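Weekly structure sync, notes
Attendees: PL (lead), two postdocs, one rotation student
Agenda item 3: pending single-chain targets
PL asked that the sequence for the first pending target be pasted directly into the notes so everyone works from the same version. It is reproduced below exactly as submitted, 93 residues in total.
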Amino acid sequence: MDVRGVIHGFIDAIFKPPISFLDMAIERLQSVQQVTAQGIDIGQYFSVFGDLPAAWQLVVTSILISTVLLGSLLIFRSVMRMYYAVKEGVKWW
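Predicted structure, written out during the meeting:
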């Protein structure tokens, strides 16, 4: 046996499993035929509430709307605080 052949076989034995795994991953990725630019269907997540009676659906809807309203008010308050802080900083600069 040639020393070069032994070293070549040793290196092939080490790197053959990762290379075969990467080749398999490439084949899988090339065989995928899905559209990747799809929107999120929120109805799938809220379909659980569709089984509730109408009164409870209104409760859940009002809770979600109030959460969005309070969140937007908190964001507005934070933006206004930053605006007034920058205004005060420029005033004394």
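Discussion points:
- The mean pLDDT is 85.
- The two ends are 81 Å apart (CA to CA).
Action: rotation student to compare against the earlier draft before next sync.
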